[in-house]
Amino acid sequence: MKKLPEKARFICARQTDSSKFGLSSGENESPCVLDSDAAASADFLSPSGTVSKRKSSADLSMLRNESAQDGDTLIAVVGPTASGKSDVAMKIALALNGEIVSCDSQDVYRRLDIGTAKPTASDRTLVPHHLIDVCEPVGQMSAGEYVRLADRAIADIRSRERRVVIAGGTGLWLRALIFGMAEIPESRPEVRAVIEEDLRRFGAEALYQKLLKIDPAAAEKIDRNNGVRLVRALEIFQLTGRPPSAIWAEHAFKKPRYAARVFALNPPRDALYERIARRTEAMFSGGLLDEVRCLESDGLADSPALRNAIGYPQALAVIRREMSLESAVAETTKFSRRYAKRQWTWFRAEKSVEWLHETEPEAAAAEILSRLSEQSVPKKNIISTTSFE
Predict the structure, then answer these.
(1) Which of 221, 251, 281 is the last residue before a domain boundary?
(2) CA-based Rg of the chain, rounded to a whole angstrom?
(3) How confident is the model at residue 48 (pLDDT cuts 50, 70, 90)?
(4) Do both 163 and 208 map to the same domain?
(5) Using CA atoms, how far apart are residues 295 and 274, in angstroms rounded to an integer?
(6) Is 200 exposed, middle or buried (0-12, 13-18, 19+ CB in 10 A)?
């Protein structure tokens, strides 16, 4: 249940050094090391159909045992930003004696709290959460690094005979977790550094235009403002001499690594946009500027994690008197809406996603539990490690 603190309090750390965080080499942009507690703690247009009947708390309890079958199957709750994924996942985890593995590309970073609307401390006490606050925001965690950490968390949860519930809206990470990563050479710092310097000097649009000439198919799949993915795509081309899209296509029919059911929240668009606007205003009035001041004082303002997190560049611009507060709120709201649209588009393309009719957390959780208890499920909705075609 993602909520903003009533009052933000910050203790600014001293200047950070990336070497202190155990950053290792690999295909990821800036690998992250788990906390000692991290391994063990740690929304779309639906098909036509009638709205199912709203379920009460008593109904959730009744569905609990019926839904507990096939405990090795991952349950994923996905959707656009601000759609209520965390609330729904909490209710599912409580009903099935489960634990939550976050699939959010911003929640992994410590000290990025208000702008990411992380689950509260009380929520994380009530239901164990994994892959939240696992690394410092000194670099950018990659899908490959996320998969390695998520595998560890899933194994830990299963070792205690508890159910795994995935919650988040980072579609690439979820796909990588379930189906694995394409066989791509590991990142080479000297190659990446040159491309990142181009990103810093000329901006994401210049990199997008370069990728468009090299690999139009890859450019079509990457948001032109996503500097991290643009850098990686160009790096792959330089390392292999092949279009990234060709390598990705070779991986498309790989057998899944996990059996999974993926449920997508589908709130009305106008309602979602209104919720995004309210949440953005609450973030800026609830301490986001102070949070960013602390990060800036520790030399982290220009880190990739902050540059690519919606709201943080805008807050920094306010602090540096480059943008008014009103403009920052408006721009953050606009970018969040665009991000929600991209998430809708991504999950529409995922064939196994099951669209929910309900949008309120309790009713949506009841719908998921009801579907999990059904004996007959359409084959297209099951991601299986034994019957994949």
Answers:
(1) 251
(2) 21
(3) very low
(4) no
(5) 29
(6) exposed
